[in-house]
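Quick illustration, no need to memorize.
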Amino acid sequence: MADGGSSGLPPLEDLTHPDGIAALPPAQRGLTLDNNVMASLSIGLLVPFLLSLVISKGKKKDKVRAVTCEVGGEPGLTKRNQRFLSLVETPWEGADTLAVLFEQACKQYKNNNFLGTRELIKTETETSSDGRSFEKVTLGKYNWLTYGQALPRVENLSSGLVALGHKKGERIAIFAETRPEWILGLQACFWQSFEVVTIYASLGEDALVHSLNETEVTTVICDRKQLKKLLNMSDQFETVRHAVYMEDAGDSSQPTLTGSSGNWAVESFSNVEKLGQQSPVPANLPKPDDVAVIMYTSGSTGMPKGVMMTHGNIVATVAGVSTIIPNLSTNDTYLAYLPLAHVLELAAEVTMIAAGACIGYGSPLTLTDTSNKIKHGTKGDASELRPTLMAAVPAILDRVRDGVRKKVDGTGALVKTLFNIAYKRRVMAIEGSWFGAWGLEKMLWDTLVFKKIKLLLGGRVRGMLSGGAPLSQDTQRFINVCFGAPIGQGYGLTETCAGGTFSEWDDISVGRVGPPVPHCYIKLVNWEEGNYKVTDEPPRGEIVVGGPSVTLGYFKNQEKTDEVFKVDDRDMRWFYTGDIGQFHVDGCIEIIDRKKDIVKLQAGEYVSLGKVEAVLAGCPYVDNVMLHADPFHSNCVALIVANQAALEGWAKKAGVDYSDFADLCSKPETCKEVLASVGQVAKKGKLERFEIPTKVKLLSDPWTPESGLVTAAMKLKREAVRKAFTDDLKALYS
């Protein structure tokens, strides 16, 4: 398998490389007109209007998606999914732990493809015109491990870990990029009831030391890249004695032990499997209440916390999510590239396993045909795999949208006109009637305009999940239209094993995160300080999640656990999220605020930083943004990571001279242009005057997990950014 590159989520240049679709040969771009399209243009302009005469204009009556129910705990307004009278806890009878679920899936689907990895044909280095070197890979077809082949490998690896010297009661950490061995290692640990500590591959050194020492990990399963990091820091780890590294394609060299790591037992993944095959150990399967995973958060508000998840917690999420993906089956293929140390990806892959679906692994840097690491002429992972299901985060989807729009804007007037007409008609159809959204008009525009755009992700995607952060309404609708598939927003947290709410596929609204998933309750409770009450119209309040997916709390942090986890008189656990939501009439939730993001300005107005940032992210000049509000001032300011393509495009039209991108960002006329554009987006988003930044600082360097300014899930690390740009923020207020 090719090196996964930086850890965490795909770099923002991935799905839409700086050249985006423009990097494809003209015949593949899908936004140029051939003779057939030219001949169809008049039909394309006339037929939609004729169809609209026979398509109902009235909106379909709102479907009830969640109903009010009475439960224990703090008074508030509680709802559950309307399709189930009680909460679901297992996907099928008897599958009450991840070990049993995996074993039964492997036996039921033994002949089906399970885990797929692409063949690495060649790696080479290319040099750009400015002298920079780039590694490029040529990749082949996917090679598959079947479900039937996976089970004995897990059994052997499990026995091998025991033979290596790992003892019952000791913890194992997985510290690696997303790849098949990650899942095999996880399941091998469960086979002996070993607790697993999951750690982001992008976690900083201090956080890594904290996580391994706090959980007293004795064995680390890692890839070669992370092994090198561990060995170089070995004298800082108090309990680690064993390291198991995943080999890469063509890997034959042995790691060099340094420092105190000379006392470690370091073995390759395949050798540990051989050890287990030679010395088999009977399975010691876990119980539903046993801790399966201690998942360390990415530390957006300080040092990461370890969330303790039981087997029953994660299985409940699988049970709930399985009910809301229509026709989830062995016919589905899932593209896996997000970090498995994030609860979103872990829950998604375990759900695919329960359904017997194929999981094809990709890399953030090889995802599409124009990704940074892909050799020209080589298919990206999505093109080769042609997935039916994908998960993504808003930062990635925003870049997909921006890349397509950039290409459209750079085409001729006729192509741009056709695209804009098609897009507007599709939006009108979607928002006007359900039939119009998915009927004949959709087929027409998909054929004329959107077919080639779909090929960016393989052409077969039937549904996508967005999670990890709020998805803008504009991006959600754009993905709906251009890729012709529903994109469901999910809401959940590590503390609730991902699942909380999820948009149902026939819900074509935007800006909401759906009704409760069938395995949990969603309750709103009053937050008096913010003046959010369940008696408001619509009902508003802090979101509290209850049910079998709510975790045990934070590892060795009882004070914080007691603060946000509660148990009612029926022994049901509830997690207080700190997010503010409101119920719509159909029972769906909309996230409208966050308690930690509220700042009171000098004049008494309250500003929700996250809410404003979500709106400002819609500005074409903005790649990332942090709004800053100071209680000693009556206005807000903002740090903006500028979008290079958009800003350089404006500079060319405006005739602005500059030496490099950093110079362009520093020019007063550039700041003036961005501030004006931000103001327009803010007004369109109905922000109040005091919420709109009066000054901005433009930054040319992106915020990455490696820089420590965003998490692996691309969430803003507000305190880290504030500390890094203290002088700039002071200057904006001067």
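Residues 35-54 form the longest helix (20 residues).
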